[in-house]
Write a structure and sequence with these properties.
27% of the residues lie in helices and 27% in strands. 34% of the residues are buried. The protein is built from six helices and eleven strands. It has a nine-stranded mixed β-sheet with strand order 9-8-7-10-6-1-4-5-11, sandwiched between helices. Strands 2-3 form a two-stranded antiparallel ribbon. The radius of gyration is 21 Å and the shape is globular.
């Protein structure tokens, strides 16, 4: 079974974001970038399925600036077999990403697409669902457990108040949640091997997709600073303070 794993290059989650002075976005100059953590979990899950014998080939895909090649090399070092880089100028919105992925799905004919539930830079949480709509495939979102059984995949997902398990007929779309697994570190020998693994270069035009943005960012602002807390002597004082703040009556 072939698996397609889309990955996105984003601001490293350990870096504190800085908003541009003009409020048009996040300042990405001279900051560390890395693979979107949810996508890293997707790559790890694909590798684990391959190690179990359920997957025969893992194809990593990234859509974005040329430096996204570094992210793909990371996926290859983790264990992906080959990669496709679709170079695009400027931000690419989820619908355009989903359309490009749909074209790659038509070309590669994978039996599963497994990707992060969202990217930590825009928190859109749309690409997987849009791709499912475009392909007409079943979708298992927010996966905390993935089990392939013959021509189907069983996805356990976290919902309010518990867990829900859905059985999807392959081919299918799966989006990953944090609790699915813990991604492995790429070893130095695998990093060296990744440099020789195949990486194809494409453009959105190769797939006939227009990536012109349809949305306009009005403004970006930092969250308000957290107020300092205070200790209270007992419950009565706590209630009194809550009433003073208008939270309790």
């Amino acid at each position: 079974m072939k698996v397609l794993v889309p990955v996105k290059r984003v601001l490293d989650y350990n870096v504190k974001p800085r908003v541009k002075a003009d409020g048009t976005g996040v300042d990405l100059a001279n900051v560390k970038m890395s693979m979107n953590p949810f996508d890293e979990i997707a790559v790890e899950e694909a590798i684990r399925l391959k190690e179990k014998g359920a997957v025969t080939e893992i194809v990593a895909v990234s859509i974005g600036e040329p430096k996204s090649q570094d992210t793909l090399r990371t996926a290859l070092a983790m264990g992906a077999d080959r990669a496709i880089l679709v170079t695009a100028e400027g931000p690419v919105e989820p619908l355009a990403v989903a359309k490009i992925l749909k074209a790659i799905v038509d070309e590669e004919a994978p039996q599963m697409v497994i990707l992060g539930k969202q990217a930590i830079d825009d928190d859109a949480n749309q690409t997987g669902q849009m791709l499912a709509a475009l392909t007409g495939w079943g979708q298992g979102t927010f996966a905390s457990k993935v089990e392939v059984d013959g021509e189907a995949v069983k996805v356990t997902r976290e919902v309010d108040g518990g867990l829900e398990t859905v059985n999807l007929k392959l081919p299918a779309i799966v989006t990953t949640d944090l609790r699915l697994n813990e991604p492995r570190y790429a070893t130095l020998p695998n990093i060296m091997k990744a440099k020789s693994k195949p990486l194809a270069n494409k453009t959105p035009a190769d797939y006939g997709v227009d990536t012109t943005p349809r949305l306009t960012v009005v403004s970006v602002a930092e969250p308000s600073k957290r107020q300092a807390g205070a200790k209270v002597a007992d419950v009565d004082e706590l209630v009194m303070k809550l009433k003073a703040m208008g939270i309790a009556k």
